[in-house]
Specification:
The chain is of the alpha+beta class. It contains 13 helices and 39 strands. The strands form nine sheets. The protein has an eight-stranded mixed sheet with strand order 32-33-35-34-36-37-38-39, sandwiched between helices. Strands 5, 6, 7, 8 and 9 form a five-stranded antiparallel sheet that branches. Strands 1-2-3-4 form a four-stranded antiparallel sheet.
Length: 678
């Protein structure tokens, strides 16, 4: 197959380096050609059109739960549908939200704004000032990129503030100090960004002055991931903090004292801290000796903040992990702390109350095989919480409760597919080193057939049971089986589950996933020919390794917004920020193990690769589209069965609106359906 001529400057050892030129004419011509081939191959049939329309119907459904965030008296929601593809930011009251059809007040119409300004704006969210909730800083990106434009917005007049705070497009960090001051980290010019492309300098900026006059608060180092600062306006506990992210897992946090002096909060740099009113919480990632005791990795500890800064190391253990249970996260209400834990990847919730000690009680109502997430609390003002409960075959129910009081059902999501005849089971596979790897199977009982397996395996991110109308209607309802693998690298069993596969131990992730694939065949759930896999981002890297190291285990592979060139990932966009996870390719020792699994470097002539689809976005400024482009070009050189689609918009999600999401998922399901003979 003939590709465009390679520019002379391309590296000799990487003949497709020219495809890293994100918006270069030659590279984009190549992209357009691949897109045309893929759309001609996968789309246009009546089956594809029906599948795309069904997915779009799910995404645009008026019966979806409009999830909300409380900010003062209002509940805010961001909503996208067919009439508003870019979305509406809107708000209502709790009283109105309780009704079947709430009375929504439009705060900002992103479609109207995009049309008026002739920009492809994608909503990236607001930073609302506390405690008054009168102003906010809205972030908008062009095409869904991580880089955003920032504008101040008035939540009383519902207009952008004339002469207010504004920032041009950059990967910025922002936060309110008071009515007239903010903390800002952005591209201030040469030397102001880290090697990862995030702010290296954070400043204090006063209203009515130019950005150039902002005062430097903290200056990090070029190899840091990022720095930032924030103000806690809690009445009686007003404090300012500076945070230096040394790498993806190591952080230094400083209290900014009167006069600007910085006082380091003395905890391990791989621990996470949370300051709420009088309390300091410390979540450990590695064993830590403090005072007379050693605390394990994955523990949550509490101390009085002022006492701790004064030297006391009197810590109360709020959570301690065991072989089956980990802490997923915690969240505060005004007077209580809610812990969300996982026991063999099943949600269990508890309420802790700091009375004379820390009283602990279960938060009831969580399904046996399912997930429960606290989607919002109001820690400034009340003990309200919003709880979302769902499972693989159980649509979401949104509850509102107050700790110690009654709980009410606010909203129920519709059933998007018939779950009758479907069973949910959890199994364990044995990996190469003997570790038991859990995975969930959803599908027809006692039926071996087309199976879709997914996983992630990185950055301490857990995959928990959840309801997906897209997978349900596009795969399960058509007779397929769906499998979620909880491989190492995630957070399902706490920090140890993640740290066991960092850097030189990365191959264990891939051995885990391969073990699940083999176990599915051993149990008669599927066969290699009818086993398809899908994953995105770090999960896209997982798919690339399965393609190059375990091609015989699978019948089809879909890799979305993937990392694939592990020799150059740290030099592409935000890649340098992930070296704590993967390693440094410029270090010969690290490159020795990275080379063993880097998908781009492990493609081989004469190998039989299963049908493969790679999807990415031109506007993905987190994982460079060059990863997927180069992989496809090399696979085409080897005459592999590969298809490629690059959406211009969408950022790291590869889709900016529901139309694009429906089209993308229809392509994914079409390829899998064809090859798996669904």
């Amino acid at each position: 197959m003939t590709e465009p001529d390679m520019p002379h400057s391309a590296a000799i050892d990487d003949p497709y380096r020219w495809l890293e030129d994100v918006t270069g004419d030659i590279a984009l011509d190549w992209v357009r050609s691949r897109n045309a081939e893929t759309t001609a191959s996968l789309t246009g049939s009546a089956d594809f059109d029906a599948l795309r329309d069904e997915v779009r119907e799910i995404l645009d459904s008026d019966d979806r739960i409009p999830y909300v965030t409380r900010r003062g008296e209002y509940l805010y929601n961001f909503w996208q549908d067919a009439a508003h593809p870019r979305g509406l930011w809107r708000r209502t009251t709790l009283e109105s939200y309780r009704t079947p059809e709430p009375d929504w007040q439009i705060v900002l119409d992103v479609d109207a704004l995009a049309a008026a300004e002739d920009e492809n704006w994608v909503w990236q969210g607001p930073t609302v000032q506390r405690p008054g909730y009168r102003r906010c800083l809205i972030e908008l990106s062009r095409g869904g990129a991580d880089a955003t434009v920032v504008r101040e917005f008035d939540l009383e007049t519902l207009n952008f503030v004339d002469g207010g705070f504004e920032l041009p497009e950059a990967k910025s960090t922002i936060g309110w100090i008071d009515d007239d001051q903010i903390y800002v980290g952005t591209d201030f010019g040469v030397g102001s960004l880290t090697a990862s492309g995030y702010p290296r300098v954070v400043k204090q900026w006063r209203r009515g002055t130019p950005l150039s006059a902002a005062t430097t608060v903290f200056d990090g180092k070029p190899d840091d991931v990022s720095v930032g600062a924030y103000h806690d306006p809690t009445e009686g506990f007003e404090r300012d903090f500076v945070v230096r992210h040394v790498d993806f897992y190591r952080t230094e946090t400083y209290l900014r004292a009167t006069g600007g002096a910085l006082v380091r909060i003395d905890v391990p740099d791989d621990a996470d801290i949370d300051v709420h009113r009088e309390w300091l919480l410390v979540r450990t990632r590695s064993p830590w000796r403090a005072g007379e005791r050693e605390y394990p990795a994955g523990a949550l500890l509490a101390a009085r903040f002022d006492d701790y800064l004064a030297g006391s190391r009197q810590l109360t253990v709020l959570f301690e992990p065991d072989r089956h249970t980990s802490l997923s996260y915690h969240t505060w209400t005004r007077h209580h702390l809610i812990l969300v834990t996982l026991t063999d990847v099943k949600s269990r919730l508890y309420v802790l109350t700091p009375d004379d000690g820390w009283r602990r009680e279960p938060l009831a109502g969580v399904p046996e095989v399912g997930a429960a997430d606290v989607v919002n609390t109001d820690p400034d003002n009340s003990d309200e919480y919003l709880l979302d409960v769902c499972g693989f075959t159980q649509p979401s129910t949104l509850y509102r409760g107050e700790v110690g009081g009654e709980r009410e059902t606010l909203k129920r999501a519709p059933e998007f597919f018939d779950a009758g005849g479907l069973a949910v089971a959890q199994h364990f596979a044995t990996s190469a080193d003997g570790t038991r790897i859990p995975y969930f199977v959803v599908g027809p009982q006692d039926a071996a057939g087309p199976t879709l397996l997914t996983g992630y395996g990185g950055f301490e991110i857990s995959l928990t049971p959840s309801y997906s109308g897209i997978i349900g209607r596009g795969w399960l309802a058509r007779g397929g089986t769906y499998v979620v693998a909880n491989i190492r690298g995630g957070g399902e069993y706490g920090p140890d589950w993640h740290q066991a596969v960092l850097r030189g131990n990365r191959m264990r992730v891939y051995e885990d996933f391969a073990a699940v694939a083999r176990d599915l065949v051993r149990r008669g759930i599927s066969t290699p020919e009818r086993l398809g896999i899908e994953g995105g981002s770090n999960g896209g890297l997982l798919m690339g390794v399965m393609l190059t190291r375990y091609p015989d285990l699978f019948g089809a592979i879909v890799s979305q917004v993937p990392l694939l060139d592990m020799r150059r990932y740290h030099q592409l966009l935000a890649g340098a920020s992930w070296m704590a996870e993967y390693g440094d390719p410029d270090d010969p020792t690290d490159w020795a193990y990275l080379r063993e699994y880097s998908p781009y470097h492990n493609l081989r002539a004469g190998e039989r690769y299963p049908p493969t689809l790679l999807i990415t976005s031109t506007r993905d400024d987190r994982v460079h589209p060059g990863h997927a482009r180069k992989m496809v070009a090399k696979m085409r050189e080897l005459d592999a069965d590969v298809r490629y689609y690059e959406n211009i918009e969408g950022g790291h999600g590869a889709a900016a609106d529901n139309e694009q999401r429906a089209f993308k998922w229809a392509m994914v399901l079409e390829l899998l359906s064809r090859t798996m003979r669904l």
